[in-house]
């Protein structure tokens, strides 16, 4: 945990980040999953504030909702919910509150950031039917999750048909979201990626009943950079640039979107790159190399 | 037009006289997996509304077309899915082979999110999502099968996304070729030589690179004696060498990879 804290607070230079990766690389499979977390008594979905957007939202009713979830786990900030190699045990998790980040191994076997999950998002959806998790999930803040058994869609549950359909919709949306993220990483400039990321985040907060224009970034600049395939420096510089252009207001991690339409224009690729050169051409970013126009030289 | 039929299409025995069913499908081990016992194949046969052939270059569905509650599986052949961006330019979002599903990202939606186009002549099974859902409601194994299918597709998509973040162009392309080779092997072909169903431009779009880079990388891999390529026919000469490139040439990363696999 201390390592991750160091990663969070350390200077956002590329060298330090490489050092953090090297330290993080061996993620030994552990089995002591629940022992690390405070286990709370199951909490009826009927009383949960997230019931409007979480699994019971399909109208399966208060009667059935309580049986759907197993235990509640409280996960401290920077603690692992599960690590790659951990047993799945037929479970996935619904985030009750808080936020998480997911790491997935890349082609070289190094864990890389793959996504952020907020309240009422599901974790472990990619491991249904598998024995072992291939992702590692870390809490970004003190959070709580509910355990759901993936076969509970069938047994015990009165309204399983509706619930099952709702759940398939959740999985389908998750696939589409991942496709969108992939689309964002192909042939787009850094400013387009960051603007789309901010808009997407705002939209996700709005869908959960929070303010769409004012929120606190749960994730560090380093995490955002990893997700978008950029360097932390360009994320910081772009945030500053957006601020200068009056698109956002930024104080530490508190962000307010002042001009969502302007951000949308950036995503589409308007108005940027004419007055100032595209930001990716200034530094030679190692990770963001795919955004550079390819010169055909190795 | 010099059209090379893909080895898969030939292997699938497209001209057999038997009525196509799940039992005589060459890709049923990928589509239905081992979860489904052979005697239950009839359940899936009944979900298939129709089976038809799609010629190369034909669209399976267009962007924003009504979904009509349909899912599709390729019985044979290859396809690509793409989105059109605001400039009307094609953005490739994936390639599919026999046994793989299309339309899983549009379940419960009215309109297709993207478009799908046949890269070679394809046989397609059109599945009624409503019937599939009903079967999943009634039978526990079918429900579990459908959940796993969606979960696997999510995992596959996450891997595709991860490929875009990870490192250099040659790494991405090497991983792409290895995955392709593995996919051909899984379908009963040889992992060492295959015919690329997609153009260099399409591969470039998919990996966030240019067609010129793909051609240059192919030449680079040829010089390193990892692959041999003639047109779209590809021979993988050195799997280990390709894997080393995929892992970024980082020797320290290799044991970690093996441990995970």
Give structural attributes.
heterodimer, A: 298 residues, alpha+beta, five-stranded antiparallel sheet, 12 strands, disordered C terminus, B: 261 residues, four-stranded antiparallel sheet, 11 strands, globular, disordered N terminus
Number of strands of chain B: 11
Which regions of chain A are unreliable across 5 or more consecutive residues at pLDDT < 50?
A: 1-35, 61-66, 272-298
Structural shape of chain A? globular
How many helices of chain B? The count is 10
Query: How much helix, percentage-wise, in residues of chain A?
Result: 25-40%
Q: Which assembly state applies to the chains in this document?
A: heterodimer
Q: Counting H and I runs of at least 4 residues, what is the number of helices of chain A?
A: 8
Mean of the pLDDT scores of chain B? 85
What is this structure, in a nutshell?
Chain A is of the alpha+beta class and 298 residues long. In chain A, 34% of the residues lie in helices and 19% in strands.
